[in-house]
Amino acid sequence: MTGCTVALPAFVISGSILLATAGASSAQTLQDDPDAPPPTVSRYDEDWSRYCETTTQALAFKCMDVAGGELTLGLGARLRYEIYDPTAFGRGPQDGDGYWLTRAAGHAALTLSPRWRVFGQLFTANAVGRAGGPRPADRNEFDLVQGFLEWRPTGDDGAFVRFGRQEIAFGAGRLLAASEGSNVRRQFDGVRVSVRRGDVTYQAVASGLVQVRPGVLDDSASFDRSLWGVGAVHATPDGSTNAVYYIAARRPDRIFGSPPSIQDRQTLGGRIVRQSARWFGELEVIGQGGEAGGLDVDAWATAGEGAFLTRVGAVRLRAALRFSAASGDGDATDRRLEGFDPLFPNPTYTGSVPLISPTNTVSLNPRVTATWASNQRLSGDVAVIRRLEASDRIYAFSGVAIPAAPDAGDDVGALWSIGWSQ
Questions:
Q1: Does residue 330 carry a pLDDT above 80?
Q2: Tens digits of per-residue pLDDT, 176-218?
Q3: How far apart are CA 92 and CA 83, in angstroms?
Q4: pLDDT value at 11 more than 80
């Protein structure tokens, strides 16, 4: 398992326009309404119940009486432009003009009673003008990406059980996320349970990964790719949190230096967050055990962020420094597999450019974000990455080793990104 890493810089420019509403009302109308909940990535956590008490015609689609229940509708769309230089670290077809990533989704939430709710979301996505065509995570012609039944035993948000297809994210998304950085997000078929007692929320999940296929209504769950886990989060009124979790995952396609075979990994971790009006601090520590390809897993990772927030006139500024480090395999001849597996993460783990898995890397990622009227946002960041173990390679998020440059050393490179969104 010897090798060296790619030592090439990568640069990406991206921009996106987000639309997060539907019906006769404009996005601007909802953004100006202080009582409107902010749009969320997965949409199912938005609470529009206040609009059941309003007679404003422009917001009628947010609460309609259907069969004795309350129906809320919504739309979301993203148009994103990307250009990489070089594409795929200089291997394969190069794309000097860049390409567009398009996606749109429509959702409906039907509250049947204080205890029962149904949520569904349809989705379409594609890549336009990309040399080599769309990647697997770029295209899904039309499919059901979320569809679940929710039971709230106490009639409020203190506890719920969700059955069906859903997007799942925990904490910062380093192990389990909806993969918002990709054009097609990640879904699971299964059950999720959450119970809040005072300041502590207990969660459990058992599910199979949905295999996304490019056609129409052809996605299905694969329980060969599955996970179950439990966790607890203690949250204080000032926004500080302490969390612990355990996740068991099975994947037949994760390699990270082991022979291609089924991998069973058990992951134990903890995360702390401290914040105020001007400061944000976060630290996460992760350990992994289990078995992969006949080898015993012994891996670890740590990551965190420190940020300063301020305002200059009407512009909100956030300056942050992220860091991450994750183990690689130090000895290919022993019976231990020490390469860290990020499981089902957001691919923007080490920075905004989703090219390199954190396995066997240490990275620093400074970033600056400016936000002004109507949530327009301009951001820039760079991820400076080095290899941690000289005897191991670096990897893509698929687990496959990235081919090495002949004269590459421990430096992986710098991944630059500039983005704009509204």
A1: yes
A2: 988 887 889 899 999 999 999 999 999 999 999 998 888 888 8
A3: 15
A4: no
Sorted by sequence, the CB contacts under 8 Å of residue 417 that are 6+ apart come out as 11, 12, 13, 14, 351, 352, 353, 379, 380, 381, 382
Collapse the DSSP code of 313 into the 3-class scheme (helix H, G, I; strand E, B; otherwise coil) and give the result.
coil
Q: What is the pTM of this model?
A: 0.84
Please check whether residue 301 is in contact with residue 326, taking contact to mean a CB–CB distance below 8 angstroms. yes
Return phi, psi of residue 87, to 5°.
-75, 135
Kindly state the percentage of the chain with pLDDT values over 70. 86
Looking at residue 59, its pLDDT comes to: 59
Contacts with 333 (C-beta within 8 Å, 6 or more apart), sequence order: none
Secondary structure class of 151 (helix, strand, coil): strand
Q: Is the alpha carbon torsion for 239, 242, 245, 251 positive or negative?
A: positive
Look up residue 96 and give its amino acid. Answer: G
Average pLDDT value over all residues in the chain: 83
Band of the pLDDT at 396, cuts 50, 70, 90? confident
Query: Do 189 and 165 contact (CB within 8 A), yes or no?
Result: yes
> Cα(207)–Cα(44) distance, rounded to whole angstroms?
18
Pair 305, 330: CB distance under 8 Å: no
Query: What secondary structure does DSSP assign to 162-183, as a single string?
Result: EEEEE----TTSSSB---TTSS
Cβ distance 354 to 400 under 8 Å?
Answer: no
Structure tokens belonging to residue 16: 């996106």
**Cα(351)–Cα(359) distance, integer angstroms:** 14
Start-to-end CA span in the chain (Å) = 45
Give how far Cα 410 sits from Cα of 338, 358, 390, Å.
18, 14, 7
Q: Are the beta carbons of 171 and 284 closer than 8 angstroms?
A: yes
For 156, counting Cβ atoms within 10 Å of its Cβ (0-12 exposed, 13-18 middle, 19+ buried), the class is exposed
**Spatial CA neighbour of 14 closest among 78, 86, 107, 106:** 78
